Amino acid sequence: xxxIADIDLVLGSSSRYRRELLARLTTTFRVMSPDxxxxxxxxxxxxxxxxxxxxxxxxxxxxxxxxxxxxxxxQVADLDGDALGKPGTIDNAIRQxxxxxxxxxxxxxxxxxIDRRTAVWKTFDVIDTTRVKFRxxxxxxxxxxxxxxxxxxxxxxxxxxxxxxxxxxxxETIDPTGLxxxxxxxxxxxLRHVGVNVL
Length: 199
What we know:
7-stranded mixed sheet, elongated
């Protein structure tokens, strides 16, 4: 096994949340923006969108990183089959949370790991699914929450690692880091699979 400190590990993401999660494992990684168009395809299901974008992000960065192991990830919030993107504005965040009130939202967090240490690329794709049941939220609660955390860069308009946890009735998951944006249990397993020891 090779130590994680001895590989060229590249996170293909501009997300500070994913960067913070990966830093739990190692500080010896690089970050590169994948610059991928995230527009959904016509009639594309949220789960399929997450998988396609995670793979596209990993490939876009892997093209520039010979000899590295590259991680790409994407998360799509799914409300009854409709993808909820990053709100981008306070008003959109309030609208999203109002739509989610009292309902179940499924978060598809896809990850693609590409090993470029050999001539033939090895690609591994996984997806983590988390079901979040929102409490019945009133307008004042939603407005207060959005003002406090300003979650405009988060799919679903909340930060579960912050005060956003107060919005929920329950969370069903096998990996709580998946909801933040990078499923770390699956990542550690994939790294072990390609001979990289994180401990």
